[in-house]
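Lay summary. Proteins are chains of building blocks that fold into shapes, and those shapes determine what they do. In this project we predict the shape from the chain. Here is one chain we studied, written as its sequence of building blocks.
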Amino acid sequence: ADFPVYLTGLGTVQGFNTVQVRTRVDGQINRIDFQEGQLVKAGDTLVEIDPRPFQAAFDQAKAKKAQDEANLANANLDLQRYTRLGEFATRQQTDTQRSTVAQLTAQIAADDAAIDNAQTQLDYATIKAPITGIAGLRLVDVGNIVNAVTQTGIVSIAQIEPIAVIFTAAEDQLPDIQAAL
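And here is the predicted shape, written in a compact code that computers can read:
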């Protein structure tokens, strides 16, 4: 029959990963969607920061792109007109118009980057769980202002599956441990 071997020792149980959740943008907390001790899954919304300033920046970047696209369309029409005029348009006018078209094309590429950046900032206003685990103590409340540069987190999440048990054992108990493995 099996005869269990019991060893007495000191140890701790801890998750393989622990994450300190912090904000990546500055703002006021509108909503907290977790309870302390709750199991949260990766991707679950934990906190919502007031998205209005980020939404405004996103809308502004999209409007700037629309404006630059309209300017580019007009510049392309002018370039076509100068090209059709042939020898009646000066070479300088045609070259200047080509340069304007190139500048506006580059500006639209910069607008696309600004839109991507504004979308990223808007996405950061919703803080999601990076891993599945147990939410620890909540370190902020609704209405608090959070800053990206602050080292204080919002909550820590400890992964519990898989979990690790760390303990010490006397050297003379090592053969029994190895035999049980």
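What the prediction tells us: The longest strand covers residues 27-32.
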